[in-house]
Amino acid sequence: xxxxxxxxxxxxxxxxxxxxxxxxxxxxxxxxxxxxxxxxxxxxxxxxxxxxxxxxxxxxxxxxxxxxxxxxxxxxxxxxxxxxxxxxxxxxxxxxxxxxxxxxxxxxxxxxxxxxxxxxxxxxxxxxxxxxxxxxxxxxxxxxxxxxxxxxxxxxxxxxxxxxxxxxxxxxxxxxxxxxxxxxxxxxxxxxxxxxxxxxxxxxxxxxxxxxxxxxxxxxxxxxxxxxxxxxxxxxxxxxxxxxxxxxxxxxxxxxxxxxxxxxxxxxxxxxxxxxxxxxxxxxxxxxxxx
Length: 291
Fold this sequence. Notes:
The protein has 291 residues and is of the alpha+beta class. Helix content is 33%, strand content 13%.
């Protein structure tokens, strides 16, 4: 089976089922979308999730409906299912094909307009891009939680989500970066801010260190500090997200030191952040990751 990152560009005309079969053969779990880019509605037996499965499509459930119910959870690579009689009515209605990115280890950053594309080009590592109706899809290798509206015109589509198939795109698929992972984590509200005095410190290690060399950590710290220093606006949110990104990548293996934290704090304070806000942002990032 061809890995999804090696998908070729194919001319499939207006035949969604043929497109779906070609993509499924290469490892992408696919499903039909009706006009308007929405999934097929649940069948009568599964309407309003009376079947007991996949409530609100947030988690896979026990439902084994043979029809393409439950949106992303129906996505499959099985050609027998795709060509079954239960799926035939859906293909007759289908306008386009979608796929479940997280189901094949991918993440799609859906950029919905020119401003969002410009932001991505300034802030995200280059990767494979696919033109969409109003913007672009940036595709990374790696799965993560999905979340819409992470910033104006930007959605994250990966686990428990679907994305339209818009073609093979151009460019090499890059590994999913920490800066994208951090976008899906909600910043704590003011009510959750830590009120007691906080002294920021590196989390205690103990996990297996996944880093091949100290240079990997150095690049991560340098990139996070640079993002903070270059942020055009929203400095509070940028500081929190960069702290979160660093901790998610390096916080569990014990390689972070107080010197690394000081570099990040220095970058934030250089943009006008108070020491107290830096300590609160660090503490909240630690709490959000369960460290």
